[in-house]
Specification:
globular, 10 strands, alpha+beta, three-stranded antiparallel β-sheet
């Protein structure tokens, strides 16, 4: 399939902000019709998100204040990849830090591009089973509350609009699809 009529050519890139978690770039692009435009792009190292599932029936979700939205969100454990870190190692680290468990089994479920219109962030999503309790050691700037609940309750939170976080929605739906395919 010929897709040349869709492709933009990057002419130049300027990094206008370097942050702790991401950089902001302004790209000058040539559009398929030859005209010029600019794109504001968040360059992000990527992240992981994990659905911690116990006996195919209980899940741990976390609650955390999110400053960008000025609200507390329901989420699955997740975090940004550190430089050179493999996604599986990051998934193990995040489970230990956020909920105090080690995954003895991590199943890749896929992933999501968070906001491809302006961000390079890709989140690797895993299902974790066979979890073992370990000492947790969270980030000093994170205040997280964990909630152990039936998986059905997590889906009720999703259906009633109490879960609006994209990675959590994707993680729960991919988990349900995985479980449905196991029967």
């Amino acid at each position: 399939m010929d897709e040349k009529h869709l492709i933009e050519e990057t002419v130049s890139t300027e990094t206008v902000f370097e942050g702790r978690v991401f950089d902001l770039q302004v790209k000058s692009v040539r559009l398929p019709d030859g005209s010029a435009s600019k794109r504001d792009i968040i360059q992000h190292p990527g992240a992981v998100a994990v659905v911690p599932l116990f006996n195919n029936e209980r899940v741990i979700l976390v609650r955390q204040f999110r400053s960008a939205l000025e609200t507390i969100m329901w989420e699955i454990p997740a975090g940004t990849l550190e430089p050179g870190e493999e996604p599986l190692a990051a998934a193990e680290r995040e489970l230990r830090e956020e909920i105090g468990y080690h995954p003895n089994n991590l199943i890749p479920l896929g992933g999501i591009h968070v906001a491809p219109g302006y961000s390079s962030e890709y989140i690797h999503i895993y299902l974790s089973t066979e979890l073992s309790a370990v000492a947790s050691g969270g980030d000093v700037d994170e205040f997280i509350e964990k909630h152990d609940m039936p998986l059905s309750e997590a889906f009720t939170l999703l259906r009633t609009g109490q879960i609006t976080d994209a990675k959590t929605i994707a993680g729960l739906l991919l988990t349900q699809q995985y479980l449905d395919n196991q029967t």
